[in-house]
């Protein structure tokens, strides 16, 4: 009986803990309120004790209850009845669940107390303490009931207010009658939490308000199910452009590449922008997405009746033709990365995970979550991963994970086989069913793909020649005298239109027929005729601007930094070039230099022999030990200067990721730069410690025993060299120029390091260049850390060596001598300078030119 009670107690306690935790989280209680609820639950244990002890006092006594196990069932039934009455009395039916879970635990605790009392004190002596326990139980129970009632009422009132707000907001979202966009529904508080609060509080609150709460929950659920099955709903949106034109200034005058365009796309519809190569498809798409940075752009673009502004980037997604996926990420990590950067900062983690799973399910990649994206890595490595069609679908899922109302795609089927293209378009079509407004350029699609679109827009030489449903193409061709019945028997209507409007080459009548456009003048006449035909057509009204939600509460700089930092470290650890090549290279450098200079001589003089034994110490033959140690320090510092160039391909490749993602406003330059600097500093620290530690320990450096100072200089020098390489990678237009900049600076560092050539012997016309090289300060600090304070038979030989390499700022007696600490500070000033220049080059120089 005792074992069963113990097992029941453990199970009940586990269930109680789980239930309590979930309930407290769902109630969104403060710290003090949560503590009150937990204390009340614990205090509830005294209620069964009270009832149980009362029944024993009026019955046959405690001893008989202990010795007679058959009394257990009546007592248990009495407990359940009393708890039900207690729950009904306070009108909170949820209390019954908590108290019922406490029943086995209370029964076992009571049983243990009775047995201990019987054994230790006896039945007679135990009756008075039990009476005191009754009084204590009454006091604790009444206090707990009052506290729990107060907290529950406050939570229920708060939930009712939030539920009414959600219901009103989602009704406004459905009907398009909200007051302003600031009062739009909080998309990140939607999901199971809104439904559970709407319904569960109907059982938590008093019977009078249960019906109201239940109706609120139904309203929320109805609004959520209205054409929005995603965890993050898609706001209603309409995009309209009017008289859009793009021109370039050339030596021969103004060249117009996109003539005056007008059109629109609504939520739940899919628009195809089609035409021959050079017709202006990408120009139109880049202009609509505010990505056009070159040329003169005129015209107006409206989003729900409101002219485009910076908020457009938060309400739209642009999926480029070439994906920007990181090969070392898994499928789910890729979408998680974009979700962290695009979904509002207060999105609950549960909702974010659900949105990711929904998007992967929508594009058919739910079963490939753990698979690497794959592709080529910098340095010649490659990872097996997704196919071309799967990568394209993953790119779409990553772009729309935050449910933007506008989705733009640049040739999503380019380079795919027929089946993969159809799968990709099915995934895009699923976006429109969720409420997205989709516009995409597409090249030579099959007829099955064209039929998926609600509207098609054909461009020819930058002119608009048709904008309407695919079913109207035949009528338009007939009215334009371009319909060819014979060709229609063997060619799809889409191919017929593309063949007709493509000019710029000689068209054979046997292939293209007689009814086709021959030159640009024919295109202009066709465009003018089409514009005249639609001039009196009513324009589709925009959605009410106030009914649109601009998702402008994206994560802040700190959240962006942590997201990018995790991504940078993950990429560094999974890249074979980082782990194998760079770490292996530094290990070999340290091992090779340590073996060549293994246990170097530690004496300043050669071992005296013969007549040299009679000479005083200053006149004895000096050994080559100082020159050898300076040489190994110079080689070690030079190796730490050169090896960061191995990471140049990684920096160049990473800059391309930033350029594309910054154009989409995913994050800013500062968090990206900081994440890059920190991750590279970690790698450099590991590499520097590995190479320098092995070499110095094997060679017996430093002579002064100040090993930590030497290691600090070498590791800091390596980090400074890495910052130099990063700066060159961001300043240069390509990798070749970056290598030239880095190599040229390193050569200057070698010349003015005060080792190979003494700077005192250099002409003053060039001697100033030593102040621009960080190796000059590193060598001065390393030599001082190596020899300072060392003596040979009480002769300060080490200080003599240090004096020959000291850095003097100024001339004559007023010259300031830089100490080891000053050199270390100068080294870090170089690091900060390289890092800052790299940051500004990244911010202002790494911009896409479209």
- Computed structural class: alpha/beta
> Which CATH class of the largest domain applies here?
Alpha Beta
What is the global morphology? elongated
Largest sheet: 6 strands, mixed
Q: Can you say what the CATH homologous superfamily of the largest domain is?
A: P-loop containing nucleotide triphosphate hydrolases
Strands of the largest sheet, in order across it? 6-9-10-3-11-12
The number of domains is: 3
Describe the structure in brief:
With 850 residues, the chain is an alpha/beta fold.
Please give a structural write-up.
GO terms for molecular function: ABC-type transporter activity; ATP binding; ATP hydrolysis activity. It is found in: Membrane. The protein is an alpha/beta fold and 850 residues long. The protein folds into three domains: 226 residues, no CATH class; 293 residues, P-loop containing nucleotide triphosphate hydrolases (Rossmann fold), CATH 3.40.50; 289 residues, no CATH class. Helix 29 runs antiparallel to helix 30. It is elongated and about 115 Å long.
From the structure above, extract its key features:
Rossmann fold; 31 helices; 3 domains; 850 residues; 58% helix
Sequence-ordered SSE layout with sheet pairings:
Layout: H1 2-27, H2 31-43, H3 46-57, H4 62-67, H5 72-90, H6 93-120, H7 122-175, H8 192-204, H9 207-225, E1 238-250, E2 253-266, E3 270-275, H10 281-288, E4 296-303, E5 306-307, E6 316-319, H11 331-342, H12 349-362, E7 375-376, E8 382-383, H13 388-399, E9 406-410, H14 418-433, E10 437-441, H15 447-450, E11 455-460, E12 463-468, H16 473-479, H17 485-488, H18 493-501, H19 509-512, H20 520-533, H21 557-574, H22 576-596, H23 625-642, H24 648-663, H25 669-699, H26 707-731, H27 735-751, H28 764-767, H29 774-787, H30 797-805, E13 807-809, E14 816-818, H31 820-845
Parallel strand pairs: 3-10, 3-11, 6-9, 9-10
Antiparallel strand pairs: 1-2, 1-4, 4-5, 7-8, 11-12, 13-14
Helix pairs in contact: 1-6, 2-7, 3-5, 3-6, 3-7, 5-6, 6-7, 7-8, 7-9, 8-9, 11-12, 11-13, 13-14, 21-25, 22-25, 23-26, 23-29, 24-26, 25-26, 25-31, 26-27, 26-29, 26-31, 29-30, 29-31
């Amino acid at each position: 009986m005792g074992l069963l009670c113990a097992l029941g107690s453990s199970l009940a306690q586990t269930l109680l803990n789980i239930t309590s935790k979930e309930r407290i989280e769902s109630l969104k209680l403060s710290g003090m309120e949560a503590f009150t609820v937990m204390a009340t639950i614990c205090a509830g244990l005294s209620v069964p004790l009270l009832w149980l002890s009362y029944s024993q006092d009026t019955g046959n006594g405690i001893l008989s209850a202990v010795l007679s196990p058959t009394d257990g069932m009546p007592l248990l039934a009495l407990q359940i009845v009393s708890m039900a009455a207690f729950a009904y009395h306070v009108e909170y039916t949820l209390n019954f669940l908590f108290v019922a879970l406490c029943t086995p635990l209370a029964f076992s605790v009571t049983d243990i107390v009775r047995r201990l009392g019987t054994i230790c004190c006896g039945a007679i002596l135990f009756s008075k303490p039990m009476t005191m326990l009754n009084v204590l139980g009454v006091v604790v129970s009444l206090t707990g009931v009052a506290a729990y009632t107060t907290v529950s009422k406050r939570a229920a009132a708060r939930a009712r207010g939030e539920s009414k707000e959600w219901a009103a907001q989602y009704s406004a979202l459905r009907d398009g009658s909200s007051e302003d966009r600031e009062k739009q529904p909080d998309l990140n508080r939607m999901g199971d939490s809104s439904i559970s609060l709407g319904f569960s509080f109907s059982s938590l609150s008093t019977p009078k308000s249960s019906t109201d709460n239940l109706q609120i929950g139904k309203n929320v659920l109805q609004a959520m199910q209205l054409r929005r099955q995603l965890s993050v709903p898609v706001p209603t949106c309409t995009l309209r452009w009017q008289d859009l034109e793009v021109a370039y200034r050339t030596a021969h005058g103004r060249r117009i590449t996109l003539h005056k365009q007008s059109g629109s796309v609504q939520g739940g519809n899919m628009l195809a922008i089609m035409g021959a190569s050079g017709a202006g498809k990408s120009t139109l798409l880049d202009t609509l997405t505010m990505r056009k940075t070159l040329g003169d752009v005129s015209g107006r673009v409206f989003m729900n009746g409101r002219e485009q502004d910076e908020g457009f980037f938060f309400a739209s997604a642009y999926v480029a033709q070439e994906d920007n996926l990181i090969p070392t990420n898994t499928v789910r990590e890729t979408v998680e990365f974009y979700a962290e950067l695009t979904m509002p900062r207060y999105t609950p983690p549960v909702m974010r995970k659900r949105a990711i799973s929904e998007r992967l399910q929508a594009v058919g990649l739910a079963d490939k979550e753990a698979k690497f994206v794959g592709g080529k890595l910098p340095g010649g490595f490659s990872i097996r991963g997704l196919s071309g069609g799967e990568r394209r679908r993953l790119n779409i899922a990553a772009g729309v994970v935050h449910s933007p109302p506008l989705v733009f795609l640049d040739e999503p089927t380019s380079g795919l086989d027929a089946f993969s293209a159809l799968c990709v378009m099915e995934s895009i079509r699923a976006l429109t069913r969720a409420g997205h407004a989709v516009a995409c350029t597409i090249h030579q699609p099959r007829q099955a793909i064209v039929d998926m679109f609600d509207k098609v827009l054909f461009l020819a030489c930058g002119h608009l020649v048709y904008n309407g449903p695919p079913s109207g193409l035949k009528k338009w061709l007939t009215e334009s005298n371009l319909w060819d019945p014979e060709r229609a028997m063997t060619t799809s209507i889409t191919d017929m239109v593309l063949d007709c409007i493509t000019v710029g080459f000689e068209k054979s009548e046997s292939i293209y027929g007689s009814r086709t456009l021959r030159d640009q003048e024919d295109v202009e006449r066709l465009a003018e005729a089409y514009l005249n035909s639609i001039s009196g057509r009513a324009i589709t009204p925009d959605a009410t601007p106030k009914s649109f939600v601009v998702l402008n509460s994206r994560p802040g700089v700190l959240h962006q930094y942590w997201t990018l930092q995790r991504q940078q470290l993950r990429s560094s650890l999974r890249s074979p070039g980082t782990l194998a090549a760079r770490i292996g290279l530094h290990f070999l450098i340290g091992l090779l230099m340590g073996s060549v200079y293994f246990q170097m001589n530690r004496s300043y003089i050669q071992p005296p022999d013969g007549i040299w034994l009679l000479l005083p110490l200053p006149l004895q033959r000096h050994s080559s030990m100082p020159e050898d140690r300076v040489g190994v320090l110079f080689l070690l510092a030079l190796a730490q200067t050169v090896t960061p160039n191995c990471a140049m391909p990684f920096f160049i490749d990473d800059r391309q990721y930033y350029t594309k993602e910054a154009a989409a406003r995913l994050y800013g330059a500062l968090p990206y730069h900081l994440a890059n600097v920190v991750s590279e500093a970690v790698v450099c620290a590991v590499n520097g410690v590995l190479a320098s530690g092995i070499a110095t320990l094997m060679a017996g450096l430093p002579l002064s025993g100040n090993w930590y100072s030497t290691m600090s200089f070498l590791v800091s020098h390596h980090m400074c060299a890495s910052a130099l390489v990063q700066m060159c990678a961001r300043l240069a237009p390509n990798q070749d120029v970056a290598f030239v900049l880095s190599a040229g600076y390193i050569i200057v560092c070698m010349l003015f390091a005060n080792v190979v050539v003494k700077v005192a012997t250099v002409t003053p016309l060039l001697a100033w260049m030593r102040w621009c090289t960080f190796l000059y300060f590193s060598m001065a600090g390393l030599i001082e850390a190596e020899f300072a304070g060392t003596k040979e038979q009480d002769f300060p030989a080490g200080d003599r060596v240090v004096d020959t390499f000291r850095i003097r700022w100024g001339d004559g007696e007023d010259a300031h001598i830089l100490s080891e600490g000053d050199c270390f500070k100068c080294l870090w000033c170089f690091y900060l300078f390289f890092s800052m220049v790299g940051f500004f080059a990244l911010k202002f120089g790494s911009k896409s030119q479209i």
